[in-house]
Amino acid sequence: MKLALDHIVYFTNDAEKKIEEMRERGLHAAMGGRHETWGTYNGLCYFGLTYVEFLGLENREMAEQETDNLLIRQLLHDLPKREGPGQIAIRTNAIKELNKRLIEKGLKTTIVPGARKLPDGTLLEWKLLFIQGGFENLPYPFFIDWEQRDDDRLEELKRRKNIADHPLGEITVEHVKIIVHDAKKAANKWGQLFGLQQAKEYVDEKLSAKCISLTLDGGNLHFCSPLGNGLAETFLKENGERVYSVNLSHQLSIE
């Protein structure tokens, strides 16, 4: 069973504005479409098959009727006050097998069908797997199965112009930083549950944090915990345990 970083969900009150910001930074980005049954819409910025989704509310009343999609529940909780990276989606090509494994590990899961209407009217469909709760105060990631081979999906995205050359050049996702109280415990738990190997430990001087990385195709996961006064500690106090940034090549980041 293959796992890969599929996308990072960035909660925003204005997806169009975020797409324009990405373009001003020399990145190719475009509006995605509408999730009609969830009351949301999005903009997309791709780096190969890994991308950042700028997710916004289009119809709060409709979104509030959604009970199974935990991402929408989190979005409703955060917006309009808290914008920024909010969740991680991991791609799988065997969602039923993954679901069985997670249940065997004692987790409570839900599989939810997803759909988005593209600007040309085409309906794109997929399946999502959500895990109830999280470790400590950090929600677990969710999983997505596009029910399509990666090569075929890549060509389709290029055909639709979702994936195109960035004006800045070739850009990739290097890792996602997640700020938590205890990086070692969080990395160990996610590694054990999802079969991810630890790669390295290091100190991030800018954040004033100790970080531990887990290896994942498409972009590694770096769990960082504060070493004292600094950006990591301030972020943790203000936001709790959550995704902090998407770190790209060429020393770029989306925070």
Q: Can you tell me about this structure?
A:
- This protein has 255 residues and is α+β, with helices and mostly antiparallel strands.
- The chain has two domains: 157 residues, Roll (2,3-Dihydroxybiphenyl 1,2-Dioxygenase, domain 1), CATH 3.10.180.10; 82 residues, Roll (2,3-Dihydroxybiphenyl 1,2-Dioxygenase, domain 1).
- 25% of the residues lie in helices and 40% in strands.
- The protein has seven helices and 16 strands.
- The strands form three sheets. An eight-stranded mixed sheet has the order 2-3-4-1-5-10-7-6, sandwiched between helices.
- Strand 3 and strand 4 form a beta hairpin.
- It starts with a strand and ends with a strand.
- The relative contact order is 0.17.
Task: Write the SSE topology.
Elements: E1 3-11, H1 15-24, E2 30-35, E3 40-47, E4 50-57, H2 60-63, H3 70-78, E5 84-92, H4 95-104, E6 109-117, E7 123-131, E8 134-135, E9 138-139, E10 142-145, H5 150-159, E11 173-179, H6 183-194, E12 198-204, E13 209-214, E14 220-226, H7 231-239, E15 242-248, E16 253-254
